[in-house]
Amino acid sequence: MEIWINPACSKCRSALTLLDAEGADYTVRRYLEDVPSEDEIRGVLDRLGLEPWDITRTQEADAKELGLKEWPRDAGSRGRWITALAEHPKLIQRPIITADDGTAVVGRTDEAVRDALSR
């Protein structure tokens, strides 16, 4: 199990606290320092069953600068979104937990973190 975190994020810290309390075996990836490649983002999106715009923090300054709210959300624009996430990792929703069964969850709630643990 791997968890993508920003240590400054309270949701990430809560997820780590819960994982520790449950005795989970996991690896921490500080994705702002160890930026995921476009291929890694595609892989996580496949595991999540989501599209890039579903995990994009559209309220971030970078998102507003890029005008992401106006970008099309369709198959033809998917690559453009993934490139933006790779170039601006602050835009990636957090924390993302990759579960041992090959799936992933966005662990913003205790329920989502427990869901990842149960997989």
TrEMBL record:
Q: Name one GO molecular function term.
A: arsenate reductase (glutaredoxin) activity
Top enzyme class:
oxidoreductase
Name the UniProt key words of this record, in alphabetical order.
Answer: Oxidoreductase
The answer, when asked if Oxidoreductase is one of the entry's keywords, is yes
Q: Which family does it belong to?
A: Belongs to the ArsC family.
Q: Which PANTHER family match?
A: ARSENATE REDUCTASE
Name of the protein: Arsenate reductase
What is the organism field in this record? Streptomyces collinus
